[in-house]
Amino acid sequence: MAANDSDARSASLEKTGVELMVEEASMKPDVAYGGEDELPPPPDLSEAQIKALYRKIDLRLMPILTLMYLCSFLDRGNIGNAKLQGLLTQLNLDGNKYNIALTMYFIPYCLFECPANLVLKKFRPSRWLPGITLLWGLIMTLMGLVKNYPQLVGTRICLGVAEAGLFPGVVYYLTLWYPRHMIQYRVGLFFGGATLAGAFSGLLAFGISFMSGTAGMLGWSWIFIIEGLATIVVGVVAFFVLVDFPHTATFLTPEERAYVVHRKKYDNSTVGEEEHFEIRHIWEALLDWQVWLHILIYMSIITPLYGISLFLPSIINGFGYTTAISQLLTVPPYVFATATLLVWAIWSDRIKKRYPFVLAGLTYILVGFAINISDVPAGAKYFGTFLVVAGAYAGFPGVVAWLGNNLAGHYKRGVGMALHIGIGNFAGAIASNIYHSKDAPRYITGHAIELMFVGIGFITVPIVVLLYKRINAHRDALVREADEKGIRYTPEELRRLGDRAPDFRYTL
Known about the structure:
23 helices, mainly alpha, single chain, globular, disordered N terminus
């Protein structure tokens, strides 16, 4: 923790008696943030004009991004619905074969997330994101044609590779457009696609189940084929709708582009962020304590999220309902989760705090799993699933936005968030292997392991909050000391320090 400010502290001591003035005229040539040199000066906008501008950006970006992530989460999680539509019997998935098939998606998905984020800017978001959407839509469609267990595992691996670039890429992409205290609402809208996917998955599976036997294929094949074809359509549309960066966005006027670029540039620093890539950005992300603690927080939410999304149909089926009714009963918890997610996201951005909503999500999950692990009536357990789904899905955007708010520098943020999401998503591999058919209907082992991860979150979140508060207070004292001694930092020094700079304050 103290090491976090050692660079700034030592620089302060070395400069004692030396005043380095930061002149306005010298700032512009130091860094051209996203083509700023080609834009007019940023206009002074009223509050109403600012809201209208970001609403315009929302309407262009958020619908297609949300739809893409809805398809992504639908395609990775629909195997849980397919399980109840003949997948296990036709492919002879006895023993732990089904769990292995789930696990093999997450290994490449985690390994390829960080490299995917590094190439995002080079390949352009408007081509990269729709391109991988088309690819995994094709893979999803072909998954409906597999004839045996090895083919299923192979397509799940390919699906993991193809989908790896979407979530970390979009979150990083959004941080290039929105100030940090506007970001959770947008991540919430985007991630709302995942909660809607849970609702749609149950409804679609129920409807598609009536196609079982068509063209000699069971219901599980049609679930994969139809949802894969839908993803391909979304990918094609995305090629025509998605744009690259604020400074190249032709749907905005030059003045609007200038405002967005300028506001983002000075969002968390008085001199802007580093934009060029250096190898040290990778090392800074790898050695940053907050990345690793946030990975633990991420896993405390994402493990229950993946566990409930992959096994909710089976858990509800264990309450004694038929397959068709179990598919339908998965819908209401996701509708409740979507509403909760949006309320929390708006509230969080308004008060500019993340941790209260992460803790609230963990509390919901704790109560929900505690109910389900207990010997109580099916109605009470079904109520518990509402709390688990809402806590996991509504708490998750805050986890992602929190670290994104507290990493400065384009490439450090990109690498740090990719590590955060990539390593954190190995929890999906864990969640894939803790619910076994032999443990039905109470799934005591699975629920207990989920509660363990929730406990890790309840320990880690307060630690991170206390560290952030202490560092922010230390930097306040450092700035006062620098003012008293007439010490100034050059723009280059502050940009190089990034989130370790004296003028940077962590979001709680």
